[in-house]
Design goal:
This protein has 327 residues and is α/β, with parallel strands linked by helices. The protein has helices at residues 4-23, 29-42, 47-56, 73-79, 175-182, 185-191, 208-216, 253-263, 287-296, 309-317, and strands at residues 63-71, 84-86, 98-107, 116-117, 122-123, 143-147, 150-156, 161-162, 166-170, 200-203, 224-227, 233-241, 272-276, 300-302, 319-324.
């Protein structure tokens, strides 16, 4: 490990390089934004870094720049005594789930559906923010700079407001995230006993499979409030379910139980053995050998990529075990 004094000296030297580069007449605006982000990290959220960013992209009169602190949703609600509905049917390991009622909240599809309050405070675990959420990478995002639990946001001064209470579903392009993180939040909504006729806040460019799953779950499109990346919205009251995806490979037990109870309509004992072939984007050198081996063991070799959601549900509802291969 290098002595702390040497690390501080190197940091000061790099900060000086960043300042000189950002002031150079020929510096590219995108590079200025990227260097501002580095400087913000190094300088513990310096206002000078914000100034560098504004050199590249000045704040228009229709927006305001806000220095904010990111806090967890459950802590914020507990501190401010906001309504929290506990979910029935919590996991056997004692993990509880809740539905949080938040007032005057802005939602940005380009910021991973992280709630932003009227004062600019963001309610989210820090780990949800990634480089792709920066405005320099995604022009529709309000996130300018970010360090730890602090961030610089550029927020519209005026937003269309939905006065009717609504439920956050959100959504992403990922099949996995859609099922275990976004739509699964409806398990918490139903478990908390909230009225099923409240409108759902969803991404405007939902894929066909996402619409199909919502339809199979009994949610009609007439209840959707669509939010696209370029047009954020403000909600007077938004009910936000706690996350059921506990990590990259961990999902709350409630998710599987809820999907099965809502989508599987058979009591038959699963008897089919399935081997799911990898998708076209996954390269496995011995894929054919694996399929031949499992075929000899009585597994049916299936490809699910072209199947609709209802067919997939029927297929897996009668299967145990299910196998697959990965690179």
């Amino acid at each position: 490990q290098r002595p702390a004094g040497v690390m501080r000296a190197n940091r000061r030297e790099l900060e000086g390089v960043l300042r000189r580069f950002s002031a150079a007449p020929g510096a590219d605006d995108v590079l200025r934004q990227q260097f501002a982000g580095l400087y913000y990290l190094l300088s513990n959220g310096s206002s000078e870094a914000t100034g560098i960013y504004n050199t590249a992209e000045p704040c228009p009169p229709t927006h305001r720049d806000v220095t904010t602190k990111i806090v967890s949703l459950d802590r914020w609600c507990a501190q401010h005594k906001l309504p929290v509905l506990n979910c029935a049917g919590d996991d056997a390991d004692g993990k509880g789930h809740a539905l949080y009622g938040v007032k005057d909240v802005q939602m940005y599809a380009a910021l991973e559906w992280i709630p932003i309050l009227g004062d600019g405070r963001a309610l989210a675990p820090v780990r949800t923010l990634q480089s792709k959420h920066f405005r320099a990478m995604t022009p529709e995002s309000p996130l300018l700079l970010f360090r730890g639990s602090h961030a610089e946001l550029r927020l519209p001064r005026e937003l269309p407001t939905v006065e009717t209470p609504a439920v956050l579903v959100g959504g992403s392009a990922s099949y996995h995230d859609t099922l275990v993180r976004d739509l699964a939040g409806l398990a918490v909504v139903e478990g908390a006993g909230l009225a099923r006729d409240l409108p759902l806040v969803v991404r405007a460019d939902m894929a066909p499979f996402q619409r199909e799953v919502l339809q199979l779950l009994g949610y009609d499109e007439s209840r959707f409030i669509s939010v696209d990346a370029a047009h954020p919205m403000r909600f007077a009251t938004l009910h936000i379910p706690s996350r059921l995806a506990l990590g990259s490979r961990s999902v709350a037990q409630l998710v599987g139980r809820w999907y099965r109870s809502r989508l599987v309509h058979t009591q038959d004992v699963p008897s089919r053995k399935l081997y799911v072939t990898p998708g076209p984007d996954v390269a496995i050198d011995n894929a054919q050998a694996v399929a031949s081996l499992l075929d000899s063991l009585g597994f049916e070799v299936v490809e699910v990529a072209g199947l609709d959601v209802r067919t997939q549900i029927e297929l897996f509802a009668h299967a145990a075990p299910v196998g697959g291969a990965t690179s």
